[in-house]
Amino acid sequence: MPALAEASGHARLMDGVYRRQRHIYDLTRKFYLLGRDGLIAGLDVPAGGSVLELGCGTGRNIALAAERFPDARFHGLDISREMLATARQRMEREHIGDIVTLAEADAAAFDAQALFARSRFDRVFISYSLSMIPPWRETIAAGLDCVVPGGTLHIVDFGRQERLPLWFRSGLRRWLAAFHVRPRDALHAVLESECEKRGASLRFDSLFRGYAVSAVIRLPG
């Protein structure tokens, strides 16, 4: 029950944050959500493959991935009804609703089979969502549970900004906190732990002097 209450509270928070912001979200975020396009290009979805995005927001990433990999099938979930409303409008506008399925769900605790009539996906990705999801460790585990053997989980998010000036790092983190965003400084260690438990391999890269990080976990096939 506490977990359900926390998820419900987070859903209300996200709806409140994005009720108006969703209309300008993509226009403003392109200037500081760096590395998203690189993640999409690196998905390397097999022909006829399946893709799941956790925290799909406005559907911006799914739409770009669908353009790049038109033979794949895409699935996205988000806890915010407001963001999903925008995402569904995008899919209709871009005429890709036939290859995209969206659902309202908690990225940290969801039933993929019930939502999408499939339990495993060739590619799962999380783009700038872990820094907004309180149970972010559980979200990583849930994402990995949905990856087929030999498939991959892809992540991009804010990094530790370790090679940027202290004044910039401090200012950035104060500004992000105003939007309920918290960089996950322990991300690398958590991913290493998950890989060790699952016998998976990890590629972890620091981008833009630590402003962002990207990670790819490949499960054993």
From TrEMBL:
SUPFAM superfamilies: S-adenosyl-L-methionine-dependent methyltransferases. It comes from the Bacteria. CDD domains: AdoMet_MTases. One of its GO terms (molecular function) is methyltransferase activity. Gene3D superfamilies: Vaccinia Virus protein VP39. Keywords: Methyltransferase, Transferase. One of its GO terms (biological process) is methylation. It holds the Pfam family Methyltransf_25. Residues 51-151 form the Methyltransferase domain. The keyword Nucleus does not apply. This is Type 11 methyltransferase. It comes from Nitratireductor pacificus pht-3B.
